[in-house]
Design brief:
This protein is of the alpha/beta class. The chain is built from twelve helices and nine strands. Strand 3, helix 5 and strand 4 form a beta-alpha-beta unit.
């Protein structure tokens, strides 16, 4: 260390730095929350919640997703550093029962401001039950192709805390809009000075999601078929909202290997209902869907459950509109 250089620093500069340090230390913590730019540091557990929080927070928030882009959210594991980040975050938005690692991390970190989207999303109305067959099945007005066993026995707890309930509420745009309102309230509790901006942003997003909902309602109103064969049990809310019948190859676990009996059962549905398409997903191996489609001489297409953002240039609404077009083609809608 060169002491002579250190001693050469003018006393006036030292005094100025000291005054600057004191001024920074006495600032209102709310004005500097989340970093030097004043934006709130918000942690969201996976993409749909990240999307809503970014839209509601606008320039006043910096949102990070605990689930990396393109990753399968069901199997998420968190590092100690990430858990510690939850402890210091200005706010955390997550969905209990969907990602066990996140549930454990939130309980361990105990952040001061935390929003569980289950209250507005899943519990806004009665939670959608699991499908009723040995691995997964169909959902439409309580009917099912397959065994008559109760949903809780058929699906059980899949290891992700679902306990027989479908967590994919965000495929119903109106339910996601309800979460936007709750996010605005939570952010306002952290940052009351910008409460009006959060409320306005939530209202704007709600308007957009209502328009998206209307597009789905009108786009699927007149179709030749109403049965969709999908890779895993993720579309119950979508099916219920738009009067479709979901038949899934796997349960809540997207990588569950279906039994020969289940594949035969789905084949019967394909023939009986005139199904033309087996839907796979962008983050799941399409092999089973492709094999099933080939056996029955029908097509495959992608129906995105929007659990993660695979394409960074396509947001939630854009992916949902792509889903709508895929559904309209598969169901031969007018």
């Amino acid at each position: 260390m060169n002491l002579s250089r250190g001693l050469a620093v003018p006393l006036s500069l030292i005094a100025a730095l000291a005054l600057s340090s004191c001024a920074t230390g006495s600032a209102d913590p709310a004005a500097t929350a989340g970093g030097s730019d004043g934006a709130l540091d918000v942690q969201a557990s996976f993409y749909p919640l990240q999307y809503v929080t970014e839209r509601v927070g606008g320039d006043h928030v910096q949102v990070e997703s605990l689930t990396p882009a393109g990753a399968e959210p069901h199997d998420l594991e968190l590092s100690p550093a990430t858990v510690d980040g939850l402890r210091t975050a200005d706010a955390v938005v997550y969905l209990s029962g969907f990602q066990p690692a996140v549930d454990d991390a939130v309980a361990q970190a105990a952040p001061e401001h935390v929003l569980d989207a289950v209250h507005a999303g899943v519990e806004g109305e009665e939670a959608h039950p699991a499908e009723e067959h040995e691995e997964a099945g169909s959902s439409h007005g309580g009917e099912a192709h397959g065994d008559d066993a109760p949903a809780e026995e058929a699906a059980g707890d899949d290891g992700h805390g679902h306990a027989g309930e479908d967590p994919h509420f965000w495929l119903d745009p109106e339910r996601l809009a309800a979460v936007a309102t709750e996010v605005a309230h939570e952010l306002a509790a952290v940052d009351p000075d910008n409460a009006a901006a959060y409320e306005s942003n939530a209202e704007q997003l709600t308007t957009e999601l209502a328009a998206l909902d209307q597009e789905f309602t009108e786009g699927l109103a007149t179709c030749e078929r109403d049965t969709i064969v999908v890779s895993h049990d993720a579309y119950g809310y979508l099916a219920d909202k738009y009067d479709l019948e979901q038949v899934s190859v796997a349960g809540f676990e997207p990588d569950t290997e279906p039994s020969p009996a289940r594949l035969a059962e789905i084949g019967e549905v394909v023939e009986a209902e005139g199904v033309t398409t087996v839907f796979s997903e962008s983050t799941v191996n399409p092999k089973v869907a492709e094999t099933l489609a080939a056996e029955h001489g029908i097509e495959t297409a992608v129906l995105d459950p929007v659990e993660g953002q695979v394409d960074g240039d396509a947001d939630y609404q854009q992916v949902m509109r792509t889903n709508l077009e895929a559904l309209r083609t598969a169901l031969d809608c007018a």
